[in-house]
Amino acid sequence: MSTQTLDNHSAALDAAESAASHLITIVLRVRRFNPEVAAEAQWVDYQIPIDPKERVLDALHKVKWEIDGSLTFRRSCAHGVCGSDAMRINGRNRLACKTLIKDINPEKPITIEPIKGLTVLKDLVVDMDPFFQAYRDVMPFLITKGNEPTRERLQSAADRERFDDTTKCILCAACTSSCPVFWNDGQYFGPAAIVNAHRFIFDSRDEGGEQRLEILNDKDGVWRCRTTFNCTDACPRGIEVTKAIQEVKRALITRRI
Amino acid sequence: MQIHKYDTVIVGAGGAGMRAAIEATKRSRTAVLTKLYPTRSHTGAAQGGMAAALANVEEDNWEWHTFDTIKGGDYLVDQDAAEILAKEAIDAVLDLEKMGLPFNRTPEGRIDQRRFGGHTRNHGEAAVRRACYAADRTGHMILQTLYQNCVKEGVEFFNEFYVLDQLLVEVDGVKRSAGVVAYELATGELHVFQAKAVIYASGGTGKFFKVTSNAHTLTGDGQAAVYRRGLPLEDMEFFQFHPTGIWRMGILLTEGARGEGGILRNKDGERFMEKYAPVMKDLASRDVVSRAIYTEIREGRGCGPDGDHVYLDLTHLPPEQLDAKLPDITEFARTYLGIEPYTDPIPIQPTAHYAMGGIPTNVQGEVLSDNITVVPGLYAAGEVACVSVHGANRLGTNSLLDINVFGRRAGIAAAEYAHSHDFVELPEDPAALVTDLVARLRESDGTERVADIRSELQETMDANVMVFRTEQTIKTAVEKIGELRERYRNVAIQDKGKRFNTDLLEAVELGNLLDLAEVMAVSALARKESRGGHYREDYPNRDDVNFMRHTMAYRETDSTGVESIRLDYKPVVQTRYQPMERKY
């Protein structure tokens, strides 16, 4: 039997394994809005006991399931891969399911608001249609010419690596809705659409780069970006969004992909 | 109420639904109804890979893959279907690559492949590299690629539409599909979709367990809609518990981690899988590994203060390999456990993962109303369906394959059916059942809460019908579910509004979970043997004489309105493989 000693537990592992959950009391301060009830949005405080190792999404569920069933938000996977639950948590765009209570100063009220720049429909639910329209507008699919090969197209590991970062996008809108340019003008494609254009422009198999670059050269395209880096800070997948936008700008100048 | 007319309606926009949509849209006027925005679907959470005997990195062929699938499913697999799955796997992967999927590459620029549980060379000699992958984000890449191609093909989506009823109309003595009834989340309005063909691709039902890798939204809505209309559900007792979920949270850590060399260890640091599966070790099939983990825990070799988990050890793998091949799961360990997988082992436990059973179909995706009869115009594919290619236990990477092979088949078959058939006339007042359901929940002044009933359901399922089962534990679950179903009649919601009423829909979803949990437990009680994911401590052996057959569960209502479940059985399709003892 291959046995390896695991005696040298790190403090982090010991903490992760400590079964006893100690509950603390937090205040969730949620921006609520339901036009069926009132025309104006308002802040509502909820006091709940919670284990600080739990997620903000768990806290929202506690409110919905134990206090007020009308609190409305989108969620699905609960571990940061589906992109449903982007929201402003303490003034910063994050996924509620990837943010642990202990990491956001639970001593003070935790503010929860819908992401900005998209129409609020109810509580934390915003209209995602303009966001997905901008995505569709950049032709986010592989464009090729000529006959299809019988086997796979070849691509070197280095060419595959070239666009790896932007394949990680989950379309949560945390980046686009953190962008001051987008807040001021919803016509701007926004970072997420440009990220998804980048994913194809820098894919060695793709032959639609010219068309896509032309779309992004538009007055509502990449040139609106003011490199404030909000998008990069907001991305829950760690995509270097601003860098991707800069690469698209450079490709437009040199027209060399 | 609005009425829409489409040739083909697809329910669900995960991998199977979108793969079907790409085919159906080219051939017929198609609508996709989905309760989530398509890119939110749980296909995106799949990690490790998609099986296909491409033989890009070592010798392999589809016959070996067929055998592994049948053996993995403990001989409950329909062998004709498994052969189709393995044969069509190769084109399914190549199609995705041509659609743009960014697979990892070999040094020659081909699609790279890695080892996965239960996939072997030459009928069990050793692990084979068959899983095509994109880091540990293969499902994400499949979901994105299929959505991108739906955008390209102009697929018409109805986002945040919940399908709550299947319309069946009897014409000339044959039950036919007439369409579906959907609830629009944004407005609370009901929509009837009259369609020549309907495809269910609405995913699994794992949310009746507490520790699960499944999304909150996986509540068996498709299974429940057809079951309530008298159609059977097949093999519902077979549920897969994935060996490596994050302890207590259930978040999936891919088997690819063991494919890359990760090792399971108990509190003594022992590589315990050597005892249970001498050849495949940590890469034995999932049911085998999950039972081994719980055996270690039960015998006092579990880790942590309560000895209730084991470790997934990646610390001997180079950090560069973890960064390149397993970036997401290592990040999950950092985010949710606060540990560093370069240096710390990861606390894990089995997590409820995948329903092998579901809506019975043939290999064209046509839904069956009994052991042989097809329901004209009704199709199903993916986790919601039971073809059955997974039998009693699915192999890792065969589900991403299943959704592509059978999603495509169902999309083509449904659109072709729509071409050669007319609409079935809608029944009078087609939305009646959903109207009543919604009104009853909205107007209820009952005293029960959705969250209380749901958490009690999850507790009883985890305690009684998980990896180890006995007659006594299953009976306890059946009794508890019966009690919860009674209490559910008295459930009330707080949100009485029309707009984005997720409070109402959680109540509807709970009703689905309760119905399906009961089917699962009753099916499990009747199966007095152990096979694949269904392990009965009171009947620890496989019994091919009495139980090499599929369970078919039907809902029945007697003249006084009392509901019951009737069980029937369907023979397994066996072609070239004789059942053998299953060892890894």
TrEMBL record, chain A:
<comment type="pathway">
    <text>Carbohydrate metabolism; tricarboxylic acid cycle.</text>
</comment>
<keyword id="KW-0411">Iron-sulfur</keyword>
<dbReference type="Pfam" id="PF13085">
    <property type="entry name" value="Fer2_3"/>
</dbReference>
<keyword id="KW-0003">3Fe-4S</keyword>
<keyword id="KW-0816">Tricarboxylic acid cycle</keyword>
<keyword id="KW-0001">2Fe-2S</keyword>
<keyword id="KW-0408">Iron</keyword>
<dbReference type="InterPro" id="IPR050573">
    <property type="entry name" value="SDH/FRD_Iron-Sulfur"/>
</dbReference>
<dbReference type="InterPro" id="IPR025192">
    <property type="entry name" value="Succ_DH/fum_Rdtase_N"/>
</dbReference>
<comment type="similarity">
    <text>Belongs to the succinate dehydrogenase/fumarate reductase iron-sulfur protein family.</text>
</comment>
<keyword id="KW-0560">Oxidoreductase</keyword>
<dbReference type="InterPro" id="IPR004489">
    <property type="entry name" value="Succ_DH/fum_Rdtase_Fe-S"/>
</dbReference>
<dbReference type="InterPro" id="IPR017900">
    <property type="entry name" value="4Fe4S_Fe_S_CS"/>
</dbReference>
<dbReference type="InterPro" id="IPR017896">
    <property type="entry name" value="4Fe4S_Fe-S-bd"/>
</dbReference>
<keyword id="KW-0004">4Fe-4S</keyword>
<dbReference type="InterPro" id="IPR036010">
    <property type="entry name" value="2Fe-2S_ferredoxin-like_sf"/>
</dbReference>
<dbReference type="InterPro" id="IPR012675">
    <property type="entry name" value="Beta-grasp_dom_sf"/>
</dbReference>
<protein>
    <recommendedName>
        <fullName>Succinate dehydrogenase iron-sulfur subunit</fullName>
        <ecNumber>1.3.5.1</ecNumber>
    </recommendedName>
</protein>
<keyword id="KW-0479">Metal-binding</keyword>
<dbReference type="InterPro" id="IPR009051">
    <property type="entry name" value="Helical_ferredxn"/>
</dbReference>
<dbReference type="InterPro" id="IPR001041">
    <property type="entry name" value="2Fe-2S_ferredoxin-type"/>
</dbReference>
<dbReference type="Pfam" id="PF13237">
    <property type="entry name" value="Fer4_10"/>
</dbReference>
UniProtKB/TrEMBL annotation, chain B:
<dbReference type="InterPro" id="IPR003952">
    <property type="entry name" value="FRD_SDH_FAD_BS"/>
</dbReference>
<keyword id="KW-0813">Transport</keyword>
<dbReference type="InterPro" id="IPR003953">
    <property type="entry name" value="FAD-dep_OxRdtase_2_FAD-bd"/>
</dbReference>
<dbReference type="Pfam" id="PF02910">
    <property type="entry name" value="Succ_DH_flav_C"/>
</dbReference>
<keyword id="KW-0274">FAD</keyword>
<feature type="domain" description="Fumarate reductase/succinate dehydrogenase flavoprotein-like C-terminal">
    <location>
        <begin position="454"/>
        <end position="584"/>
    </location>
</feature>
<feature type="domain" description="FAD-dependent oxidoreductase 2 FAD-binding">
    <location>
        <begin position="7"/>
        <end position="400"/>
    </location>
</feature>
<dbReference type="InterPro" id="IPR027477">
    <property type="entry name" value="Succ_DH/fumarate_Rdtase_cat_sf"/>
</dbReference>
<dbReference type="InterPro" id="IPR015939">
    <property type="entry name" value="Fum_Rdtase/Succ_DH_flav-like_C"/>
</dbReference>
<dbReference type="InterPro" id="IPR036188">
    <property type="entry name" value="FAD/NAD-bd_sf"/>
</dbReference>
<dbReference type="InterPro" id="IPR014006">
    <property type="entry name" value="Succ_Dhase_FrdA_Gneg"/>
</dbReference>
<comment type="similarity">
    <text>Belongs to the FAD-dependent oxidoreductase 2 family. FRD/SDH subfamily.</text>
</comment>
<keyword id="KW-0560">Oxidoreductase</keyword>
<dbReference type="InterPro" id="IPR011281">
    <property type="entry name" value="Succ_DH_flav_su_fwd"/>
</dbReference>
<dbReference type="Pfam" id="PF00890">
    <property type="entry name" value="FAD_binding_2"/>
</dbReference>
<dbReference type="InterPro" id="IPR037099">
    <property type="entry name" value="Fum_R/Succ_DH_flav-like_C_sf"/>
</dbReference>
<dbReference type="GO" id="GO:0016491">
    <property type="term" value="F:oxidoreductase activity"/>
</dbReference>
<protein>
    <recommendedName>
        <fullName>Succinate dehydrogenase flavoprotein subunit</fullName>
        <ecNumber>1.3.5.1</ecNumber>
    </recommendedName>
</protein>
<comment type="pathway">
    <text>Carbohydrate metabolism; tricarboxylic acid cycle; fumarate from succinate (bacterial route): step 1/1.</text>
</comment>
<keyword id="KW-0249">Electron transport</keyword>
<keyword id="KW-0472">Membrane</keyword>
<dbReference type="InterPro" id="IPR030664">
    <property type="entry name" value="SdhA/FrdA/AprA"/>
</dbReference>
